[in-house]
Amino acid sequence: MLMLDDPLNCVCANFRRAARHVTRQYDAALEPSGLNTGQFTTLVALQRTGGMIVSELADLLGLERTAMTRNLRVLEKDGLVLRELGEDRRERRITLTRQGQNRLEQAQPLWAKAQSRLIAAIGSDDAIQLLNRLRVFA
């Protein structure tokens, strides 16, 4: 029986270990596109929303604003996103460039293959249940 008061069964530690393992799998799958999992997710968010200010994007992806800004610098340097002044000139609005859209289109089948492998490993019903439970924490 699982002992919940055992530090080796720490929920946080197990989340972190699982997240590292899953991230490595998705990163390996996405490698031919030149994107990592975080970059892929950022581009997907920008595609779906048509662009966002940095703080909103950070909130959506569960990142600190400073980390989001750092991550966006790489995408901007690679020509995948464009950073412009927002309506409030203190804000920066981020949009996907055509090159970013092309890279995302290249990466999506790679992501889908990784997603399918993970779902096959745990089963679709368990995958849905896992996602629903994870959303409690996110």
From TrEMBL:
Database matches in Gene3D superfamilies: Winged helix-like DNA-binding domain superfamily/Winged helix DNA-binding domain
Entry protein name: MarR family transcriptional regulator
Domain HTH marR-type per the UniProt entry, residue ranges: 1-138
Origin: domain of life: Bacteria
Keyword terms: DNA-binding, Transcription, Transcription regulation
Alphabetized SMART domains for the sequence: HTH_MARR (SM00347)
UniProt xrefs under PROSITE patterns: HTH_MARR_2
